[in-house]
Each structure stands twice: as C-alpha cells, then as structure tokens.
C-alpha cells in the first residue's frame, strides 16, 4: 500500500511488472489518473465522465439506495435507473464525495509544540497544531482538510480535499445482482456479484460545492477514467488506487496476541448478537427490515471479516510469527548503533499497552452504545455539541467543530429512515446487559445510574425513555441542534436526560484515552524507527500502515491455490450465476438477468477465449477495508475492474500480508457494460461514459 510519493522510487519495478505509463506521474495527486480517484462515503470511487459521474460499489452506496427505498418502492430489491438527470435521487444528507487536491508534509509544524511534553499534554499539543493547520487550510471555501499520521506519530501530512455535498443516485442494479450471494459468498471465491453503483456529484451554479438544490449543476471533474473496451486475462498487469481504511502490520507483538486471543473472538460474538436481533425484528416488520438494511449489511460484513481475520491469523500462527519477527528486530537493535532511548521508549510503550488491556471488555461495550444505536447516539452528539459550542472553535473536540455541524445536521435529518424504537431498545438492552455482567472494577458509575444494575431495572428505564421521548421527531431534533448547553441540560425529554447522564462518563473516559494515546503517540515512533532501520539493513522498503489516505498497489491478474488439490481460476462467468441460482435469497438471480444469460447475446463484451460473459476477476493487489470501490487499471491506465472484496484466506491481511494467499476480488467492467446494455439498459449513461455499443 504505497504512498503516491513513493512511486517514482519504484519505477523500475513498475516497468518490470508491465506498467506502460510514467511512474513519476503517479506522485502527482492533482494530475491524472489519481485526480480521478475520490473518497466516497468512507470508501473509494472514481469519476467516469466529465459531468461528475462517480462509479463505486453497490455496498458503498447501499445506504444511499436504502435511504431512497420504501416498502412500496424498494429500490434495493428493484434496482434503479435514471434515464434523465431530473430523475436522479438525492443521497442521504451526510453523504460526501471528497476530491483530494493536496498532500503536504507538515511534521515539523505538528510536532514543534509537543517537544518535551508527555501524556495528555503531548496529545493536546499535536491536536492543537493539527487543528490550526486544518483551520488555515479550510479558509478556502469548499475544502475539507485533515492531518494524516504516518508511521505512528513519526510523520504528518496535511490533506486538502474538495468536499462535494450534493450527491445523487443514478444507477443501481437490484441487490440480487449487486449483492449476489450476500453473506454466504462474502469474502469467498468464486464470486458472481455485480457490486457497482453509479452516482453523480453536483455543485452550485457558481461551480462551488453546495448542499442539495434542484437547480445545482453537475460537477465538472478535473479528470475521469476511461472504461476499457477489452478485458483481462491471467498474468495481465493491474494497478489499484484507493483509500484503504486501517492496517496494523507494524504493530507490536503484544497487540497481535491480544487481537487473536481476545479482541477478534469478542467482536464476532458481539456483532452476532446484534445481527440476530435486527434479523428477528426485520422478519416481523418489513418496514424495520428496510430501515435497518444498511446497518445490518455493515454488521454482517464486519462479523465475517473478523471471523476470517481470526481464522487466517491462527492458520498462519500469527502470534508466534510476529513475536519471532519482533525478537529478531530487537536483537538487531541491541547490536546496532541506535540511541539507547529507542529501546527504553519501546519498553514503555509495551507496558502502557498492557495497562490498557485491563478495561478492554468495558471499552468494547461502551463503544457499541454510541455506534450501534441511532436515537441515543444522536442525543449524545447533540448534548456534546452544545458543550463544545461554548469553546473557541479550534479548542472544540474533533467532530464537533463548526466544520462538522452540517454533517451532524444531515445525520439528524436522515434518522427517520434509519431508526425503529423497537429495534433500538432491543439492541441497547443486549449491549447494556452484557456491560452489567462485567466485574465491578470495570463499571462506570454514570452508566450504572443511567441504566440500573439489573436487567429488570434496565428494561423499565428503556421502556420509559423510548416511550416518552420527543427526540424521535425531526423538528425536535433540529431545534435541539441550536439549543444552548444549559437548556439541553435542563430538558425534560427522557432521551436528552439519558444522554446528559452519560456525558460526564464519556468525557472522563475520553480524557483517560487521550492521556494514553498521547504517550503512545510519543513512544511509538521509536518502534517504527527501529523497524524502518531494520528493513533498510536488509535492502527492503517499507510503507506506512494504511490510514484512509490515498495509496497505490500494483500486481497482476492471478488465481491461487487455497489448499492441496484446489486451484482457483482468476475469472468467473455468468455460468456460475445460473449454477448458484436457487430461486431463494441470496441466490435469487433476477428473471431479466437469467433471460439475458439464456439468450447468450454477449457480443463485444464476451471474453474472446472463454466465449461467454465474464463477471468477476482476481488479482494479487494489496487491499483492505476502505478499498471498496477502488478502480483497477490496466497497463494503459484504463479502468478494467472495480474492487469490492478480498478472499477468505487473506482477510487477515489487515494485520499480516501473505502474498501466497492474498487476493482482491473485482467486478469485471465487461459485466457492467453488458448489464447496462442488455439487462437493465442505460444507453444515456453508456454514451456519457464513451461506451456506446
């Protein structure tokens, strides 16, 4: 997962791998092809027309499709095609497309005020310097800026991104195509999913980012990718650009041990319980099924990823392998002429991590209270925002500054289509009951007072709060967004009262975390410096762990052998759709798709060797969460695939990369073209993307 700035140094390797472009151009974020690659809803996408068409995954835009769905007009089930721009549907108000325009190293400015400080003071110094840089950057209207931490506190970069706020749904296949196989096929191969959706970004008539308005005009993309008319075959060069979320490959051996020994099993269990609740309620109420479709899909994806990660790390003996690697590095460090303080900082960081493990169960559950609820989460956000508003903007907590208020307002507006009081009460009851069972040392007084100490007390409290609150009304929520802190604190609304009771604990636990994070931010660079020096001593390069910044990976189209006697071909075809079809979800292929396959009219989108229509393909590109929707380019820089998944054998790649098994799964652009030509026609879009038959 190379930073673009590292690509010129890899020119020889790129050329040897088959790339025909200029490697130096890949360091230029403001030029093609990288200025066509955008961040979409927390993942990735790419412009595919000059008029702001954005191609991303169906599952990345799933919330947009769900937001526009109703039981009587279920776009998830039916799919959607806008034949004219007036037919395009607005995304949920907090959905964003970010176009990266700058990436500048600012390490000296970020770390200058932190010198000599420790703990919370170190954290605050880095935080204040980062916010000052962001505020300075965002003086330019329409910009969303951020600071990226590379190599765990060793290096910092200022990222400038144009924030496009009016995003509209243009084309989505039915989920029986976009999610064919759903949770059963998730992370599996062979795959037969058309996991893609087309959106369009709009701006005001002045060309500047603006909120949704009917009179807005399509954004004129600085560059866009051309979808290739030819396809791929085994051994072809491919390259992927995207925004991978988080990897942990440079973490300490003790962190590997905790991840495998406790965190992954705990997360699988916790998410499984929440999934069961939503599925149970959705089975009883079709409206709840639609309302929670996006959250359920996210939970299922996360649970299966954690399951695969655990299985892969155990299979590769991840604990022992990482310990052996770390021991070798530390032994080399003791022999090398590096400062003695380096080893002392490493030992101090390891001790701090051990201390943090004492409250890991509590922290997991309290985190779920604020991430897996909708109404309570937003009540807590509103209470916190009112307090933060009393501070100078740069002193506010990240996420509660003036720059964040439009996003918060969007979340308050869309709640109605994401929330059911019955479902939320059950989810919250399950989380808090597990918290109630923790040892007394992990209890938090405010949580005990707010929710009671027994399941019976908890149920009485939840029934009263959800039965009497007015916060479920959009007008009440939006009014609370503007309320002053004393007014909210004195509110007689049961939900706002509950949030107010929890807020002191939230702030206190946050302070504890920041003290620890500040120390780790100060101490971890020693560990990274040792790793970098150790790699260089062996003639090896090293990239920073992924952190949602733009990265590049290059390789080839390749199958693999997951186990003895099994070989996977790198390309699948529509024959597999028919073979898997059962007539029941998740293998209920739509009738128009089956009819088109039966007719066999594949024409120019058919593979010239296989003589049939391709669907998905594999590559050995390096990906993780956040790379969903990443464009896959051929040697000429043309779009041949759209990344959407990894294989089961390599889900653990976020912690440990194994080139023998790591594969990325992509939608073949020939399948997209065929669907848009023959199955769910969109001739206007094909023409706009220069793909007219």
Fold and architecture overview:
This protein is an alpha+beta fold. The protein is built from 25 helices and 20 strands. Strands 1, 2, 3, 4, 5, 6, 7, 8, 9, 10 and 11 form an eleven-stranded antiparallel sheet that branches. A seven-stranded antiparallel sheet has the order 13-12-18-19-20-17-16. It is globular.
**Mean of residue pLDDT values:** 95
| Cα-based radius of gyration, to the nearest Å | 25 Å
Distance between the termini: 36 Å
Q: Percent of residues in helical segments?
A: 40-55%
Strand content: 15-25%
How is the main sheet built? 11 strands, antiparallel
Q: What structural category do the secondary elements indicate?
A: alpha+beta
Task: Count every helix, treating DSSP H or I runs of 4 or more residues as helices.
Answer: 25
Shape: globular
The counted number of beta strands is 20
Q: What are the main properties of this structure?
A:
seven-stranded antiparallel β-sheet, 693 residues, eleven-stranded antiparallel β-sheet, 44% helix
Q: What is the compact description of this entry?
A:
The protein is of the alpha+beta class. Helix content is 44%, strand content 15%. The protein starts with 10 loop residues before the first helix and ends in a 5-residue tail after the last helix.
């Amino acid at each position: 997962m190379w930073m673009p700035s590292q690509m010129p140094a890899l020119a020889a390797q790129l050329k040897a791998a088959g790339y025909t472009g200029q490697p130096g151009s890949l360091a230029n974020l403001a030029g093609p092809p990288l200025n066509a690659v955008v961040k979409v809803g927390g993942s990735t996408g790419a412009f595919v027309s000059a008029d702001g068409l954005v191609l991303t995954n169906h599952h990345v835009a799933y919330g947009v499709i769900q937001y526009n769905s109703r039981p009587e007009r279920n776009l998830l089930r039916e799919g959607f095609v806008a034949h004219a721009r007036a037919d395009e549907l607005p995304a949920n108000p907090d959905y964003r497309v970010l176009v990266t325009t700058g990436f500048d190293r600012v390490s000296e400015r970020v770390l200058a005020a932190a010198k000599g400080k420790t703990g919370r003071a170190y954290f605050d110094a880095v935080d204040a310097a980062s916010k000052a840089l962001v505020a300075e950057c965002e003086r330019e209207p329409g910009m969303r800026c951020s600071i990226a931490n590379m190599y765990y506190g060793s290096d910092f970069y200022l990222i400038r991104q144009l924030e496009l706020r009016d995003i509209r749904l243009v084309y989505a296949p039915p989920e029986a195509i976009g999610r064919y196989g759903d949770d059963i096929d998730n992370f599996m191969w062979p795959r037969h999913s058309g996991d893609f959706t087309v959106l369009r970004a709009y701006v005001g008539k002045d060309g500047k980012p603006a909120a949704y308005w009917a009179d807005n005009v399509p954004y004129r993309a600085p560059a866009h990718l051309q979808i290739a008319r030819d396809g791929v075959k085994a051994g072809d060069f491919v390259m992927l650009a995207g925004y991978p979320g988080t990897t942990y490959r440079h973490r300490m051996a003790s962190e590997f041990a905790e991840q495998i020994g406790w965190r992954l099993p705990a997360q699988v269990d916790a998410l499984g319980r929440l999934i069961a609740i939503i599925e149970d309620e959705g089975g009883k109420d079709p409206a709840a099924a639609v309302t929670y479709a996006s959250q359920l899909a996210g939970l299922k994806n996360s649970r299966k990823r954690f399951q695969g990660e655990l299985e892969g790390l155990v299979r590769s003996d991840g604990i022992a392998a990482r310990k052996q690697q770390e021991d070798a590095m530390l032994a080399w460090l003791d022999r090398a002429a590096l400062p003695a303080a380096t080893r002392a900082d490493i030992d101090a960081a390891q001790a701090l991590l051990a201390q943090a493990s004492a409250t890991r169960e509590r922290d997991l559950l309290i985190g779920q209270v604020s991430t897996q609820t909708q109404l309570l989460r937003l009540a807590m956000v509103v209470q916190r925002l009112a307090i933060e508003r009393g501070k100078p903007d740069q002193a506010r907590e990240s996420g509660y500054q003036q720059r964040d208020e439009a996003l918060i307002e969007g979340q308050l507006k869309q709640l109605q289509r994401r929330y059911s009081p019955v479902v939320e009460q059950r989810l919250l009851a399950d989380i808090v009951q597990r918290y109630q069972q923790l040892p007394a040392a992990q209890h938090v007084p405010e949580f005990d007072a707010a929710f009671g100490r027994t399941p019976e007390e908890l149920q009485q409290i939840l029934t009263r709060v959800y039965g009497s609150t007015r916060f479920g009304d959009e007008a009440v929520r939006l009014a609370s967004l503007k309320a002053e802190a004393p007014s909210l604190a004195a509110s007689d609304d049961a939900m706002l009262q509950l949030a107010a009771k929890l807020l002191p604990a939230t702030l206190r636990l946050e302070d504890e975390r920041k003290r620890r994070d500040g120390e780790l931010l100060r101490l971890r660079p020693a560990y990274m410096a040792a790793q970098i020096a150790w790699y260089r001593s062996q003639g090896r390069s090293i990239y920073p762990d992924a952190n949602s910044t733009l990265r590049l990976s290059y390789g080839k189209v390749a199958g693999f052998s997951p186990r003895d006697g099994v070989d996977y071909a790198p390309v699948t075809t529509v024959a597999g759709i028919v073979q898997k079809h059962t007539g029941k979800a998740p293998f209920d292929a739509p009738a128009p798709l089956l009819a088109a396959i039966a007719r066999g009219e594949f024409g120019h989108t058919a593979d010239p060797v296989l003589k049939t229509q391709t669907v998905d393909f594999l590559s050995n590109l390096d990906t993780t969460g956040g790379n969903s929707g990443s464009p896959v380019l051929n040697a000429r820089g043309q779009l041949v695939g759209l990344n959407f998944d990894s294989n089961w054998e390599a889900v653990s790649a976020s912690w440990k990369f194994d080139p023998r098994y790591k594969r990325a799964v992509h939608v073949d652009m020939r399948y997209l073209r065929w669907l848009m030509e023959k199955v769910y026609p969109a001739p206007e879009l094909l023409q706009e993307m220069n793909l007219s038959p």
